[in-house]
Design a protein that fits this description.
By secondary structure, the protein is mainly α. The protein has two domains: about 45 residues, no CATH class; about 110 residues. It is about 70% helix and about 10% strand. It contains three helices and four strands. The strands form two sheets. A two-stranded antiparallel sheet has the order 1-2. Strand 3 and strand 4 form a beta hairpin. Helix 2 runs antiparallel to helix 3.
Amino acid sequence: MAARQRRRKGNGSDRMVVSCSPIRKRCGIIVADDSRLGCNLEPYRRICVLFPRFRSKERDVRSDVERLTTIQNSISKVIGEIEQELIGLTARIEDARSRAAFLYGDMIEGETDDSARDAAILADAERILVRGDRRVEEIHHNLSFLTDMRRRLTTEADRLRAYVAEGE
C-alpha cells in the first residue's frame, strides 16, 4: 500500500498534502507506508507512533457506566422476581403449616377415624414443609448474593463517574 499524495495550489504555491490513510499495524505500532511516495513521512510516522488515537476519557467512562447500568438493571429485575417468588412461597408455606397444625390437632384429639391415613398425610406435609424451608434458605442466599453484586456495580459506577469528574 502506498500513501496518496495530492498537490494543492493556492496563492501561487504548490503544497503537497499526504494522506495517512494507508497505514498498517506492525507489532502494535502504526506505521505509514511511504515506499512509493518518494518523500519522507518520518515526521508523520513519529507522531502516529508517539500519540496513538484513543477515545476520550468521558466516552470510555460513559461506555463503561452504560455496560454496568445494563447489568445492574438486569440484576434489579431478577431481584424483583426473586422477592415475588419469596412472598408467594412464604404464603404457601404458612398456609401448609396451618393445615398441618389443624390435622395434627385432629389426630391428637382423636376426631378422625383413619389415624394411619392422617399420619401419612402429616408425614407428607412435614416433608413438603422441610423442602419449602430449604427453598426459602436458597432464595435468601441468592437474594443476598445478587444484592451484593448490585451494590458492587453501583459502587464501581460511582467510582467511574468520580474519575471523569477529576478531569484529565
